[in-house]
Request: fold
Amino acid sequence: MDDLLSRSRAAVWHPCTQMKQLEADPPLAIARGEGPWLIDPDGRRYLDAISSWWVNLFGHCNPRINAAIIDQLGKIEHVMLAGATHEPVVELSERLAQLTGLGHAFYGSDGASATEIALKMSAHFWRNAGQPEKNGFISLKNGYHGETVGALSVTDIPLFKATYEPLLRYTVQMPTPDARLAAPGETAEAYALRCADALEAHLAGHAATTAALIVEPLVQGATGMAMYHPVYLTRARELCDRYQVHLIADEIAVGFGRTGTMFAFEQAPPLPLAGAGIKTVRPDFICLSKGITGGYLPLSAVLTTDAVYVAFYGDATARGFLHSHSYTGNPLACRAALAVLDIFETDRVIATNRIKALEFTKLLADVAAHSRVRHFRHLGMVWAFDVADATAGFSARFHQSALARGVFIRPIGHTVYVMPPYVTSADDMRALAEAVLACLDNPKI
Ligand SMILES: *Cc1c(COP(=O)(O)O)cnc(C)c1O
Reply:
């Protein structure tokens, strides 16, 4: 195994890593996976407490997803989606349309490529609509939308962004409704509404040059699982309608049940209409990736409305959306995604997870009450807290100490979060809570 680690250090440039730090904090060699467990070459098991960077939903080597991919392998592994089509991509598009209410699906391979697609599509829409000056973007403070150059322009994580600032396009960041930033005595809802007022003030002056607002609905993941009140989404929808700006929901991390509903934006309170009716909150674009294939294969999708779609439809080629990736709509990835949707239906996953989440929250009660813990927070299948006295190197020490206790977990700065695969059992969760407590009890971590 040491041999594998040194070969990896020599030949593999690991993502989001200062390679020199791997000497002190080496990567975990994984030979196999089984349900929520990662298994090393010596047979030691580690609970995948963060779902392999938030992608895994139904465990590793899930028999139903494996079977779907194997079946598809015997039919067609890949065919280009320009000038050809196939059953898995058509069925997936139909089912995603049914689930989101957005009937046109454009595919990419990673989350960041979905962000790029949504940004380009929005600006191109306004160009086709005769308003090419509407090409600016707004995002939230501390937001994360991926790390390719366009996506990084709307991302606001200084550690990832500052170095590349000269390469990026100027964008505007609005105050984040992160509930931890509420004033003393102010509710999360009141604070979210105050942030929405700031958004309105900006839009009132800049709508004419703004194409879209992009947000991570309810949970800003990469900054450290910041959570906010859903009324912000309702207000954002209302304001985007009033000021004629697109609303892009980046559900790359929170989609597919992570926040307790299939998609996080579903939790936005509906808009009251003049008269008696209400209007469901729906974004103009939804970006999906990560959990879409259950963590099996790279796939992303951008779903959008009829109004956006028809603005591209016409005789002029350049009016169309001339964007592509070689693996767009890969059939194996689409079959994995269809198997994931089947599991959601047959196992009634959203309802089952609600019960599971209540149970897991109880199991984490001692963690929530720990003297070092601040801002313990929970939504759906995400739990997070901040460690008050965390010092430099906390994240790596916590990671290594949890590994020694059979748990694979990677804090973000001083925030520890748990985002387990949905197949995690109460016994697994109890063991996870005990490992986290033991790490917290060690003042050297
Ligand atoms: C992970 C993530 C992305 C980027 O996805 P990649 O597949 O890593 O490119 C974009 N937005 C959000 C909210 C994410 O969590």
